[in-house]
Amino acid sequence: MKVYNMVVIGAGPAGIAAALEAKKNGIDDILVVERDEYIGGILPQCIHNGFGLEYFGQELTGPEYAFEFIKELKETDIEVLTETMVLDVDKNKVITALNRKDGVIRVKGKTIILAMGCRERTRENIKIPGDRPSGILSAGTAQRYTNIEGYMPGEKVVILGSGDIGLIMARRMKLEGADVKAVLEIMPFSSGLVRNKVQCLDDFDIPLKLQHTITRIEGKERLKRVQVAQVDKDFNVIKGSEEWVNCDTLLLSVGLIPENELTKAMDLKLHPVTGGTFVNENRETNIEGVYAAGNVLHVHDLVDWVSEEAEIAGEAAANYLNDNLTKRKTKIKISPDRNVTYTVPQKIEYEFGDKNFIKIFMRVTKPIENVKVNFKYKDENIVSFPKKIVMPGEMVTANLPTALIKDHMKEIKVSIVKKEGETNGKK
Amino acid sequence: MQIIIIGAGVIGAAIARELSRYDIDIKLLEKEPDVADGTSKANSGIIHAGYNADANTLKGTMNVKSNPTYDQLCEDLKVPFKRNGSLVVGFNDEDLKKLKVKKENGEKNGIEGLEILNREELFKKEPNINKKAQYALYAPSAGIISPYELTIGYADNAVRNGAEVLLNTEVEDLIIKEGKVTGVITNRGNYQADLVINSAGLYSDKVAKMAGDKFEITPRKGEYHLFDKVHGDLVNNTLFPMPTEKSKGILVLPTVHGNLLIGPNANIIDDKNDFSTTSDGLEKVFEGAKKLVPSVPEDGIITSFSGLRASLPSNDFHIGFSENKKALINLVGIQSPGLSSAPAIAEKITEMVNQYFKNNNMEIKLKDDFIENNPSYPHYHRYEENDEVEKWQNVVEKNEDYGEIICRCEHVSRGEIIDAIHRPVPARTIDAIKRRTRASSGRCQAGFCGPRILNILSNQLDIDPLEVTKKGRDSKILKAKSKELIIKDINEEDNVGDKNESI
To answer: Largest alpha-carbon pair distance within chain A?
Structure first.
């Protein structure tokens, strides 16, 4: 069995960035396995702009963003296997994959980067009753048909969920000549980026109906109409608010689920909130030398942060292979506190070395203005960062200075609270 | 000799297969774009032991007679089947009495191995069952099967033995001459026959009426939730609550493919074409299932669906010659345990057909070249389940299409999908491919593989991608080529959308 220093599963933005970073840190014998016929993950079908502002300081389209990394990858000797599906990974880091040319492939990675990305939630996940006609698809599948295959999946469109792909596809379908009737969102706020709401809906007069959902689907063969209803703050349908809307297409943008079937096969437990595995600051899972990065770990709204996170994992894997890491005597737990739904990482396990800070990614439960992100050990405030506004649709990040982390701190709690000390801030 | 069978559900397909042992020209007519497209595709998928019905009913005899034949049958037809056993769960001494009655009835019917389990024995078999459960009637001979794969297997085998399956062919009327049915009128032309067999399921009353036979099929809808395979080991046996007059209640069971299935409820409806699910119904299914297994997960549903049982007021199967016209056999009201009874029903019909021809001084002969077995199509997931992934290498070496995974949730290769398109009863729609290969039946529900399967169908059938459907007729997946709608918009002056909508 061929043994690689690193096997990366998935050649999306996370996988490529992790492989490149390991290479830059002196690692040879890297294999990247990709199930699609091209690399770049979902980016090649994201032909809109808005990528790269954080990472490159300029605005790029999805394919352009991917190309920057692909170009670099091609200049290295990193091995890439496309159209190759990884079917199993075991605890001993042995990978089973399948493709047309080689058939069943078995390789071992001294380190493994899990970078499988995520998948879209389906109609069934949110239990919309009714008929089961054609014309109901996830926004991402519609995006593939429109931007890669060159076909329009429908003409009269209703979009459920204001996730970023839903907002992007509202505009895309409109530009392709479809009648986009509305985007419905069950929450009282948009779950996508603010700029996407403005640029994709407002600019095209597409209504965003907050606190609305779909209660029934009709159409024996092709979708004929959907029943739209308003909900109260507890998500119960308000009686009498139901209205039928004729449409031949329903796009769903109701959330993303990290694609962790392989992770589960390795007996790694999944975080109940992120849907990804538990990791330390190196994005290392509970199996030494196995890392997770990108949307397989937690769903990001910006690819820029996927790249950054994957580089953390890639560098850490290189350090692991070069034996450059020292474990701390006691590990530090990072826990979400008030208004924070989760943090990544969930723990700090290694000595800091020359690291000046640890970047903590987190999500907030609701939109709040004028807040402070507080890091605390028991009642003692370690550090605070002011933020003008935080929203659930936009990841919050903060750099926790390593100099302030002391050996006695066993758990650091992260909260986001109103500056004045209010806790239930409203938009 | 010519025989027409109307309706390619499990019963029609089983009859076609059994009759294809004889030197008969058989046509199996189906109004839908695939076989098993009605009741046979959406049910619990259980092969019952047969302790419910009385021995003096058709339900009782047919089921008990069929049950032991399933192992060999499924081996021949290459259909997944497993004897996982069933448990009727009792919660008190009153239930125990009823279970004992059931057991006695089962033994009278000739079922072996029935046992009343006490609490300890029950929990050993089912650790996740409701802690309040006290007793259970255990039937080791009960099994689980893929009902649509059985139907497809039967139909494929019939075709291999010379029968013809005509899809998208709806019988509009019977041709009757001098009190005798001599053929059928369909949307695709007329067909002559010496004998017509009506196995039209939900519509068997409609077909019978064409000969003046009066039946009234009442569709009874049952809704189900199917869960991700990660929940497939929540239960081992098929768990039944104590039954009521109307139904066997809401079950919790593993499917033969390793998913978890809960359902069905039972609601009488009017519309035989209403396969919709309701929020109320789906909630009831959850409530019912939780009574048996409180830890049934709230999340992890892959799909929710409903099926219609074709029930008669008499509550038994009706199998017999038309009372008004000659040369017509009606099979009406074949609801549960219809699937469990299919082999014996087909055998019974074969006897009736033989007798009929004999009585009319005609003779049918057994073929000497009947092919008992279906070929074994390679399925990667079976190699995976059997821990034989290494052996898949040989399959890929023969044909590299088997090396390209198209459905990533269920691990289905391009080769398997191409096979499905070229089987004796060919898959022509996305749903037909799903039923033959499991492609798109997993947790992403075609999000990833949908566009790819569409391309394979379009290539293999040499049709425009715009023509590919989910389930035939108007269920097209795509509407237009890129930019076509914009051009249409420019050409149409008034494109203001639907009126009377606030959205």
So the answer is: 66
Q: What is the DSSP letter of B74?
A: H
pTM: 0.94
> Is residue A65 exposed (0-12), middle (13-18) or buried (19+ Cβ within 10 Å)?
buried
Contact between A6 and A22 (Cβ < 8 Å): yes
Q: Which of A133, A119, A249 is nearest to B431 (CA)?
A: A133
- Among residues A42, A94, A114, A35, which one has the least CA distance to residue A275? A114
On the question of a common fold for A1-120+255-325 and A122-254, the answer reads yes
Domain A1-120+255-325: assigned CATH number? 3.50.50.60
pLDDT of residue A33: 98
pLDDT digits (tens, 9 = 90+) for B288-300: 999 999 999 988 8
Rg, chain A, Cα only: 22
Q: Report the C-alpha gap between A40 and A44 in whole angstroms.
A: 6
Please indicate whether residue B247 or residue A193 has the higher confidence score (pLDDT): A193
Window B:97-136, CB contacts with A under 8 Å: none
Q: Does B78 touch chain A (CB under 8 A)?
A: no
What was the ipTM of the complex prediction? Answer: 0.93
Q: Give B457's contacts in chain A (Cβ within 8 Å).
A: none
Homologous superfamily of A122-254 in CATH?
FAD/NAD(P)-binding domain (3.50.50.60)
Q: Which sequence spans correspond to the domains of chain A? A: 1-120+255-325, 122-254, 326-427
CA-to-CA dists, residue B395 to A102, B79, B462, angstroms: 12, 20, 26
Q: Which residues of A touch B281 (CB under 8 A)?
A: 129
Q: Render pLDDT for B24-62 as a digit per residue (tens, 0 to 9).
A: 999 999 999 999 999 999 999 999 999 988 889 999 999
Cβ-defined contact of A122 to B275 (cutoff 8 Å) = no
Q: Is the pLDDT of residue B501 over 90?
A: no
Q: Please tell me what DSSP assigns to residue B487.
A: H
Scanning B305-324 for CB atoms below 8 A from A yields 305
| A residues 181-240 lying closer than 8 A (beta carbon) to B | 181-182, 207, 209, 215, 217-218, 220-222, 228
Verify whether the Cβ–Cβ distance A177 to B445 is below 8 Å: no
Reported as type and span, the H/E element at residue B484 is helix B484-491
Mean residue pLDDT of chain B comes to 95
Cβ-in-10-Å burial (0-12, 13-18, 19+) of A1 comes to exposed
Q: CATH class for domain A326-427?
A: mainly beta
To which H or E segment does residue B430 belong?
helix B430-437
Residue B472: list chain A partners with CB under 8 A: 221
Residue B478: its chain A contacts at CB < 8 A?
145, 151-153
